[in-house]
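Page 37, continued from 36.
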């Protein structure tokens, strides 16, 4: 019986901590529900995904541009060396 009382006391002592934590999480979920709710939330999600996709495409295009520029330099050097041989 003594073990049961100490276990119950430990549970009862943790209830205020858990309740405040749950209240904070509930508030966070309410804000998320408000932001993502309905068509406006879908619009925000799709806008974020589009922004992310454009950012990735821009990075790929930037890498492609630097590759093309380096290839142009190499081709220019090859053309100059071939002109000298003629």
């Amino acid at each position: 019986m003594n073990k049961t009382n100490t276990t119950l006391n430990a549970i009862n002592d943790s209830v205020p901590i858990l309740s405040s934590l749950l209240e904070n999480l509930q508030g966070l979920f309410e804000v998320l529900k408000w932001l993502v709710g309905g068509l406006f939330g879908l619009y925000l999600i799709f806008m974020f995904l589009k922004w992310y996709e454009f950012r990735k495409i821009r990075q790929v295009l930037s890498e492609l541009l630097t590759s093309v520029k380096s290839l142009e330099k190499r081709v220019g050097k090859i053309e100059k060396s071939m002109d000298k041989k003629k």
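The CA atoms of residues 73 and 79 lie 10 Å apart. Flag for discussion at group meeting. The two ends are 105 Å apart (CA to CA).
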